[in-house]
Amino acid sequence: MIKLWKTLTLIIAFAAGTLLLTIVNQPAAAAEKGLIPLESFGHLPSVGRPALSPDGMRVATFIEYEGRLSLAVLAIHPSLKEKPKILPMKGAEFNWVRWVNNDRLIGSVVIANTTFGIDTTETRLFGIDRDGKNLKVFRLFDRNLRWIPMSQDRVIDFLPEDDRHVLIVLDKDGPDDHAVYSMDTNTGILKMVERPEPNIRNWMTDGDGNVRLGYGGDPKLLISYIVARRSADANLERLIGKDPKKGITFSPAGLDCTNPSRFYVYSSHENGNLGLYLYDMDENEIIEKIFLHSKYDISRAIFGKRDNCLVGVSYIENAVKTIYFEEPYATIQAQLQATFPGLGVGLSTSSADQRYWIIRVGTSQQPTQYYYYDLEAGSISLWAEAYPELKGEDMMPSTPVSFQSRDGVEIPGYLIYPQGGKRENLPTIVMPHGGPASRDTASFDFWAQFLANRGYLVFKPNFRGSSGFGEDFQADALATWGGTATNDIEDGAKWLVSQGIADPDRMCIVGGSYGGYAALMSIIQSQEFYKCAISLNGVSDPVALVNFYKRFQNTKGIDDIIVGDRKKRDLKNFSPYHRAKEIQVPVLLLHTTKDRNVRYHQSVSMAQQLKKYKKDYRFVTLKDDSHYLEWEKNRMIFLKEMEAFLAKHIGAE
To answer: Is residue 250 part of a domain?
Structure first.
C-alpha cells in the first residue's frame, strides 16, 4: 500500500501543473551509490501499459495494488479532479486494456485452465465501465459444443467510429475455423462478418473496418497462404502459397490505405534480414522496398490508429529505434527526442484527435517514466514512474559488446558492470535470455540491476537463435537445443575471462524459461566455467516438453524448432534431466505452480533427479504464480533466494 500511495500521490499531484516542453527531469550526475533495498527491485511496476480515453481526459492503466496488478482509471487532464478508481477485478492476470468509448473499456485476461484434462493457458475478453459497473467476462463459445477456443481475445479492429463494437477473430466452431465476428462490448453478442477460409488463421481490416486480407498455413506441410480482396465487396483471391523451406516467404504486415490492390509484407529475401515491402496484387509481386536494415530485422510496421495507414517502422539496435514517415508522428518524435536527449522515447498512446499523448521515456539505466503531452499547448508533464524507488543515477548502464564464436560468427551482447568502478576480475553472472527466439536489449532489467547493485558483473549474450539479427543468425540454432546456442554462451564466458573482465573462479549462470534450460545444460557441457546455476521456470527435460506440446493440434513443426533430425540427434543427450548425474556444481531451482508455458513438473522432476544422484541443490516452489512472476511476493522470494545462493557460492565483493 505504501508504494501505491506514492504512485497515486505522483499521479494526483501531476494535475496541479505542467512543465514547458523544454524542461524535463533527467538522471542527475553520478552520485555515491550503495546497496538499494531488495524490496525496491522486487516491487511490481507501479504503473504500466496505459491507454488514453478517446477524449484524452482519463487513462486506464495497470497499477500495483496489494501485491498484484490491478486495473485502474485515473483522471489525467489537469481540469479533472476525480479520485483514482481501482476497478473490481482483483486477482485477474491482465494482457491489455483499451477504450471502446469515453465510458467503456475492453480488455484481455489470462486464465490458467484445465480443458479436457490438459492444463492450458487461455484468454478471455472483458468489458467494464470506467466507474467499475457492468463488468462482463465474455464466454465466446457455444456451451453445448465440446470445442472451447483457447484464444478469445484476438481483436483485429477496435472500430474507432463505432462506440460499441469491435471485430475479433475466433475459432468458435472448431480449431480450423477462424472466422471474423463483430462483438457487442456490452453484451458479448457475436455476429459473423467473415466466414472461415481453409488454412487461414488471421485476418486484417482496412481503415473502414472491412475484412480485406487473411493469412495462415498448413501445419502439416508448413505451407503459408495469403488471401485478399481488392475491395470491401470483392471475392477473396488466394495469392501466395509458398513452402517456407523453399524460396521466399511473405508475411502480411498491413494494407495500403491508398491503393486497394496493394498490401505490405515482411520478407527476408534480399539480405536475410526481415524488411518491409509493398506487394501488388495486379503484378503478383513485390514492387517497392519500404524499409530494410543492413544488420537488423524490422520489429514492426506501425499503422495509424484511425485510418490504418502506414506511418512508420521500428527495429531494435540496442534499444528500439522508430522511424516515422507521416505527420504528426515524425514531428512529435523529433521534438521529444530533442527534449529527452540520450533517452529512449516512445509514443505510447493518444487521444482520438491526437492532441493528447502519453509518452514513454527510459533507458537501460533509467526505469520507465510516463509523461502527459499536450501537442496543441506544447506542454509536457511527468505523470508516473514504473519504479519510483529506483532512480536512474543509482542504476548501471548496459554496455554493448561482441565476441567471436568458435566458428567465427560475431555474437552481440551486453555487460552491466557492478557499482564501484572496478572493471576486471569481477564475480560474474552469465544470464542467457528466454525464448530462445527472443533477444536481450539495452532496456531496464530489474534482475540485472539488482545483481549489479549487489556487486556482480552481468553478461547477457544474444546467442544464435536470438531474434532480430537476421534469418541466418536465428536459423543457425533451430533444432539444436543444447548445441549452437549453448556453445555461444560458453564462448562468451571464455571471452570474458580472456579479457580479464570475469573472475573464472566466481562465475555462475542464471536464467529463466529457456534461459533456465541454458543454465542447466551449460553446467553439464561446460563444467569448468561455472561454479553454480540458477533456473527460474526453466525447461529441464526437452523430451517431455516436445511430447507435451504434441498433444495439441498444429504443432508438427515442434521437431524443426527443438529436435531436428531424430535419426541423427537423440534429444536425451541435450536434456539436463537425463544427464543430471553429470552435474557437479550447486543448483537452485525455482518454479511457479501455475506456469503454463513451462510446466511446474519440469522442475519437480529435475529436483527428484538431483536428489536421486545426491547433488547439491535447492528447490523453491513459488505458489500460484504464472510464468512471468506477476505476484509481488514471489518476485521478493526469487530475489532473496538468488541473492543468498550467489553470496554463498561466488560471493560479490
So the answer is: no
Q: Is residue 125 part of a domain?
A: no
Grid coordinates given for 293:
536494415
Q: Would you state the cell numbers that stand for residue 131, as one nine-digit string?
A: 466507474
Place of cell 496543441: 376
| Tens-place pLDDT, residues 82-92 | 999 999 887 78
184 strand-pairing partners: 165
- Helix 600-612 to helix 542-549 angle, to the nearest 10 degrees? 150
3-state percent helix, strand, coil for the chain, nearest multiple of 5 = 20, 35, 45
Check residue 282 and report its DSSP letter: T
What local confidence, expressed as pLDDT, does residue 21 receive? 42
Q: Residue 348's closest CA among 70, 104, 108, 51?
A: 51
Work out the number of other CB atoms within 10 angstroms of the CB of residue 491. 20
pLDDT tier for residue 32 given thresholds of 50, 70 and 90: very low
- 227 in Cβ contact with 239 (< 8 Å): yes
How many domains, the chain? Answer: 1
Round to whole Å and give the CA distance between 335 and 332: 5
Q: Show the domain range for 567.
A: 396-649
Q: Which of 447, 443, 445 is nearest to 343 (CA)?
A: 443
- Residue 88 belongs to some domain of the structure: no
Spatial separation of the C-alpha atoms in residues 280 and 261, rounded to whole Å: 6
- What is the phi/psi pair of residue 345, to 5°? -125, 130
Q: In what order do the strands lie in the sheet with 118-129?
A: 93-99, 104-115, 118-129, 136-137
651: Cβ contacts below 8 Å, ≥ 6 apart:
427, 506
Name the residue among 627, 571, 572, 574 with its Cα closest to residue 599: 627
- Find the helix packing angle between 446-453 and 632-649, rounded to 10°: 40
Give CA–CA dist 223/546, Å, rounded.
21
Rounded CA-CA distance 278/269 in Å is 13
In a domain, 451, yes or no: yes
Look at the block and give the residue holding cell 516436445: 546
Neighbours of 611 (CB within 10 A): 12
CB atoms within 10 A of CB 500: 11
Nearest to 345 by CA among 310, 324, 370: 370
Looking at residue 405, which CATH number applies to its domain? 3.40.50.1820
Q: Say if CB 177 and CB 149 are below 8 A apart.
A: no
CA-based torsion, 134, 135, 138, 142: positive or negative? negative
- Taking alpha carbons only, the member of 515, 516, 509 closest to residue 603 is 516
Count of CB atoms situated within 10 Å of the CB of 21: 18
Q: Are 146 and 173 in contact (CB under 8 A)?
A: no
**Angstrom distance (rounded) from CA 319 to CA 337:** 14
565, with CB counted inside 10 A (0-12, 13-18, 19+), is: exposed
Give the model confidence (pLDDT) of 355-392 as tens digits: 999 999 999 999 999 999 999 999 999 999 999 999 99
Mean pLDDT of 11-19: 41
What CA–CA distances, in Å, run from 249 to 178, 217, 298, 535?
22, 11, 15, 36
CB 406 within 8 A of CB 491: yes
CB-neighbour burial class of residue 460 (10 A; exposed 0-12, middle 13-18, buried 19+): buried
**Mind listing the pLDDT tens digit for each residue in 66-123?**
889 999 999 999 999 999 999 988 778 899 999 999 999 999 999 877 776 777 788 9
Cell match 516542453: residue?
21
Instruction: Give CA–CA dist 42/631, Å, rounded.
Output: 10
